[in-house]
Amino acid sequence: MSSMKVKYLVALVSVFCASVSWAREPFVVKDIRVEGIQRTEAGTVFSYLPVKVGDTMDDEKAAAAIKALYATGFFKDVRLESENDILLVVVEERPAIAQISIVGAKEFEKDKLKEGLKQAGLAESRIFDRSMLEKAEQELKNQYISRGKYAVKITTTTTPLERNRVGINFQVDEGKTAKIRKINIVGNKAFDERELLSAFVLRTPGLLTWFTKEDQYSKQKLGADLESLRSYYLNRGYLEFSIESTQVSITANMQDIYITVNIVEGPQYKVSEIKLAGELLLPEDELRTFIKLDAGDVFSREKLTESIKLITDRLGDDGYAFANINASPQLDKEKHQVAFTFFIDPGRRVYVRRINITGNNRTRDEVIRREMRQFEGGWYSTSKINRSKQRIDRLNYFNSVNVETPAVEGATDQIDVNVEVKEKATGAVMFGAGYSNMQGLILSGSVAQDNIFGTGKLVNLMVNTGSVNKTYSLSYSDPYFTRDGITGGFDLYKRTLNTSTLVSVMNFNTDTTGAGLRFGIPLNESDSILLGLAAETTTVGLGPGSPQRNINFVQEFGATTLNIPATLSWRRDGRNSAIWTTSGTTTSVFAEAGLPGGDLTYYKLNYTLRWYYPLTDNFTLMLNGEFGYGAGYQGKPLPFFKNFFAGGNTSVRGYNVSSLGPRDSNNLTLGGNKRVVTSAEVLFPMPGMRNDRSVRLSVFMDAGTVYGPGGQIPAQEGLRYSAGLAVMWISPMGPLKVSVAQPINNQPGDNLQRFQFQFGQQF
Question: String of b and e for 477-493 (b: at least 16 CB within 10 Å)?
Fold first, then answer.
């Protein structure tokens, strides 16, 4: 018999006994007194007591009173007595919990365990109910079992304290964590067991499972893995695939877990025919372009789902927000073929009544509304809704952006667009440090507000120090300088370059102070043009042994020059993700020219293309190409401090920073007016950490160099190649890039650097 049943039985017996003992004549209650209470207020007892002064007390009301007081859970004994028409309520309180202590817990924080006990009804200051003790103990065990500690032992003791209180102590012996020793799949014929297990999150102990905890059994994780297994077969044509049973067993010592999954593959089905039915608002030829399955193809549930989504989204673009697409299968079990009929019900065409924005306490409504591509009064469009959400999210003012499109009550052709945002802090005062093998220790600090006064405008004051580069700057940007979405801003900056610590580069330093204006013109959702105009002065310092061309430049133009650089750039970003990119391209063209009126007249062009292609779910091919060219005009040369350089962690790995290209008689790099850098890289997650989007590995091959006049060692010029392994980690302290590269065609005199790393954000 359970403790709860015992509790109710005791209460009923008590009520019965009370009824029997109350065998007396009814009377009118003149007063009510309570005895035996220590912590409970008398008013609390009166509030639960169904008898008031002036009521007639009888056996029925006596039973009801005792039952009501027992039901509070405050008392373990209740008696009713009478004296001269005065009702006397005598109670014995249950003890209160004075303290709860947990000893031996290491896996969890004690506050978290106490929170679990509280949910089970056991907490300090609450009334102690022994029936809750077993429930609380089981709750503790469940917490440990969720972490794979099946051998946990919990001993509970209660200690009486003064003033009718108790102390509860949980002694925890955690034991060892149980590990998954073997996962067996029985019944597979078409695919190797190792291949099927690659779709599982759960796995046997490996190199990194101590960190990922993937070797610890979880019912939820196993359920997800079984669904992944089902999807694996359904995406490869096995329509009749089924999981017959799953057995999970643990050894007697509670340390080893064995999982067996019994499956029936069934035959592989191919698509025999695709039909369209229902109300076809679009030409059938256009609709078929959205269906990713064709006759003769092996059936794939993934492609079927994608086809339904594409048709739904296409109809949604025309205002049919509630379109229903149902793909009905017709199986031919003898031929192992399946035909599908796509039934299309577009529903009614709807338009947007109102756009409602909530959650923006600091950000002005107009800042969000101007990013909307869906307008009030217009026909509903799925792509415009999605684009609107994406643009609002890209503002980086919010932790989350949620868009819902509920139907308007009482209308069949109207919906509302509800945009709910959760704001985050957009202002920051940052101080940091980084390190690279190019610049050594780098200190940085900035005061920035990305959304000043909720207007969407940006102000940034930055200080960045390094042995090679130093930057001090103030920037202001208005993303909507005009209502058409043209951005505008200005920059004030001071930049210092010192190559003395670069062993491969000729020694010189520059000190540049300037100010500039910039404007951005969006062409569409992916393309934008940036225009800039600045005025700056540059002071050049030459080190010992400087090449004659550098000396000639200073003699001709002086140590300090005025430059009026104008910039024009075009950028297209078609990546699916800015951090964990698996597909898409980025393309940019950058042009800089020193305009007449300044001391320097030159131009530089740079073209960059980066292409991502998914090889598998986990492997991505990245191809990168960079081409640069510069020259002077009006009879003036390209300033030597505007030259291109190559080599290092951001161009051709395995070679020292800026060490490639033409060299002087001292074997120091001069830089050049032409630059070529290419790379091929296969990106993949860290083994055992497939779901961690902060760490990524790659194998790569780089090629590149710099060309230009002035070189005095022709044998050292020409393309250089390297290959190696790299890791990229978006750490809480900043991005970390590490590469180990092997130069392939290095020549005598090349400055090699096989291990290269960069830690901390570079500006």
Answer: bebbeeeeebbbbebeb
CA 301 to each of CA 188, 195, 298, 325, 665: distance values in angstroms, whole numbers, following the listed order: 19, 19, 10, 15, 66
**CATH topology (fold) of 96-173:** Ubiquitin-like (UB roll) (3.10.20)
Contacts of residues 319-326 at CB distance under 8 Å and 24 or more positions apart, as own/partner, are 319/349, 319/350, 319/351, 319/379, 319/380, 319/381, 320/281, 320/346, 320/347, 320/348, 320/349, 320/350, 320/380, 321/347, 321/350, 321/380, 321/382, 321/405, 321/415, 322/347, 322/348, 322/350, 322/407, 323/347
649, exposed or middle or buried, with CB in 10 Å at 0-12, 13-18, 19+?
buried
* Topology classification of domain 427-759: Porin (2.40.160)
Residue 718: other Cβ atoms inside 10 A: 12
Minimal CA–CA distance to 72: which of 103, 57, 50? Answer: 50
Burial (Cβ within 10 Å: 0-12, 13-18, ≥19) of residue 663: buried
Going by C-alpha positions, the residue among 117, 115, 109 that lies closest to residue 136 is: 117
Q: Which CATH class is domain 351-423?
A: alpha beta
- End-to-end Cα, the chain, rounded Å: 71
DSSP assignment of 184-220 = EEES--SS-HHHHHTT-S-----SSHHHH-TTS--HH
What architecture is the 270-345 domain classified under in CATH? Roll (3.10)
Minimal CA–CA distance to 685: which of 729, 740, 738, 734? 729
Handedness of CA 311, 313, 319, 320 (dihedral sign): positive
Q: CA of 492: how far to CAs of 387, 480, 506, 594, in Å?
A: 34, 20, 29, 18
Burial track 286-316 (b if 16+ CB lie within 10 A, e otherwise) = ebeebbebeeeeebbbebbeebbebbbebbb
Joined together, the tokens standing for residue 233 give: 């077969």
Q: What is the pLDDT of residues 67-120, one digit of tens each?
A: 888 887 778 788 888 888 888 888 888 888 888 888 888 778 777 788 878 777
The segment(s) of the chain belonging to CATH 2.40.160.50 are: 427-759
Give the relative orientation of helices 301-317 and 382-394 as an angle to the nearest 10 degrees: 90
Tokens found for residue 617: 């779910």
Identify the CATH class of 3-93: alpha beta
**Distance between CA atoms of residues 587 and 609, nearest Å:** 5
Using CA atoms, how far apart are residues 395 and 279, in angstroms rounded to an integer? Answer: 40
- Rounded to a whole number of angstroms, the CA Rg of the chain reads 38
State the Cα–Cα distance between residues 363 and 361, nearest whole angstrom: 6
Residue 691 — very low, low, confident or very high, per pLDDT cuts 50/70/90? low
Domain with CATH 3.10.20.310 in the chain: 3-93, 96-173, 179-264, 270-345, 351-423
Q: Which of 442, 435, 405 is nearest to 420 (CA)?
A: 405
Count the neighbouring beta carbons within 10 Å of the beta carbon of residue 455. 14
Instruction: Tell me how far CA of residue 21 lies from CA of 64, 91, 114, in angstroms.
Output: 14, 16, 43
Angle between helices 130-145 and 110-119 (to 10 degrees): 130
pLDDT digits (tens, 9 = 90+) for 374-422: 898 888 998 899 888 888 887 878 878 889 989 888 888 899 999 998 8
CATH match of 179-264 with 3.10.20.310: yes
**Between helices 301-317 and 219-234, what is the axis angle to 10°?**
90
CA distance 99 to 87: 36
| E strands in 437-480 | 440-452, 457-465, 469-478
Q: What is the DSSP string of 521-565?
A: EE-SSSEEEEEEEEEEEEEEEE-TT--HHHHHHHHHH-SEEEE-E
This prediction's pTM: 0.64
- Whole-angstrom distance, CA of residue 726 vs CA of residue 729: 10
3-class DSSP state for residue 57? strand
